[in-house]
């Protein structure tokens, strides 16, 4: 890495907000104080892709984003504004939803193993023709197949007729080429991204494939590279070593989800992660542990460990059954190998191991699997013996499998079933860890500064389950659990839902995101219910239940009494939520690491899970508000969110003007000390309020004081100055619930 990386701002570049539109933001981003633009993937993606993670052509910039000329204009705009460029790359998979859009995939379907691209994709050639799971359930689906020229057409999807020599009846053609069209419910004949059959796994472990799929990206000579989903790769460490050699000066980040206490493999030549670990530490600071007992009673006796285990077992044996069976075929000598492999994956406590590193996780999984499934003891022992050998193909592929089981089983299933307190159900988090004490946060921050000071920190991403501001407001519920329990009972009685777990999720979402447009809440709840797969699912939607569910949502808007109650409760907790939002943002931007701001979150943002969090951002409004602030306006903490823009811009500008180095806690002494977190970054002290509802109940700061080093300190937010060593917190935080105190030089 050539230079110390600078704070980033994430833009979801997409066809309706392309590279030229992004270029027009360069001056605003510079004024905000960021140092680098961090983009979504820019290579040619599936037609109309709103995210870019389904790359179809690695040789060119996405024409729907403006193509290479637009990228050149963006880079020139960034250079003029003094900004760098961080790009998101997708080495694990390619988009195959529209086969003809991906030249390499199209050629493999035409020529099979004779294709020069046959080695690009992780295809199970031992199974014969490539299975493409696209057909509808109805046996009559084959009647929709037709031959048009040299292509097989099904529901507007085109597939090549091998070598141009096909023909005959469609029923024969679909089963005679190098591929076979099968039911969408069946697993494909290739490794994929999780359970998404339209994203086919790439073999970037092959140097030729690496070179072919990375040449265009490396030509851009970007300041930073963010690697998507490294856990899906056959050998992440070797891949990252090759990438580092090809881009020695780049700031290199991996989208690695670390479980609490887990660390990146020391052998990886990277600068850090994309920051989910930091997200959990920061957000936990603002969650009151005293609310855990009451909120647990609302959820019943079920434990997260059991929900996660059952969800992972289910996923391993259904959505990921094709991957499980491919593994089992590598152990034909082991009876019940498929069951044992699924069980071990379900008991894996982290996303994956990186043998020889992480062998202890396999040992722990074997113990837990034996406890839960004593009937599988022999099979578990037999496969576990092979899974510890880094050279064994079974072990290699099992490491790719466990990450998928974790992601689909926990993030996309258990997080929608276990709804005790959904603010904790976040990527890289642990719903069992109810709050983070200031002492624990300080320890983690000191380790971050020592071991990975160039790792990214974040609060919101395109993958988070809900935005930072929704989580901030939800955190207030943990401070007033009895009042929330009573409110939940009223709302549930006014609009009952047959699925109690989903009802918990719905009403917490309402509390955290209200006012939210009706159609957005409908879309979110339908996605959440289908992900949970309890009362309905993606594969088998229960239309009757979903109609009932949507009727409950409508009642929140149409029943005047319920709507009024919702509005009143939300109004009562929103100021405390704003306090938490400002506190989270200040801490994340000032703590060790390189802070990222997700598009639009410099103002309040009540986004929910993707695609809700990819909605258009009103940058004109943000420009205007920033100009007013720069003209001297000190915005109040209110609906506009301008106070958050003030905090964001002032911390980012402070980081640009002086180095934030070192880390040491700053003492807060007095009766309300537990309600503050403060730390020094080398002459810059960040101070934030935590647990604001209980602070208000106790009557404020009282005699609580902040202990500052001798000298003159100026709040970068308000311009106020102090020279006393013991400053009353009521003075420091008189204007805002946060402060950024800068020592005179």
Automatic annotation (TrEMBL):
Stored SUPFAM superfamilies: (Trans)glycosidases
Residue ranges of domain Glycosyl hydrolase family 13 catalytic in the record: 12-425
Domain of life: Bacteria
GO biological process terms held by the UniProt record: alpha-glucan catabolic process; trehalose biosynthetic process
One Pfam entry name: Alpha-amylase
One term of GO molecular function: (1,4)-alpha-D-glucan 1-alpha-D-glucosylmutase activity
InterPro entries the record matches: GH, GH13_cat_dom, Maltooligo_trehalose_synth_4, Trehalose_TreY
PANTHER family cross-referenced by the UniProt entry: ALPHA-AMYLASE FAMILY MEMBER, MALTOOLIGOSYL TREHALOSE SYNTHASE-RELATED
NCBIfam families found in the cross-reference section: trehalose_TreY
UniProt protein name: Malto-oligosyltrehalose synthase
Species this chain originates from: Phytohabitans houttuyneae
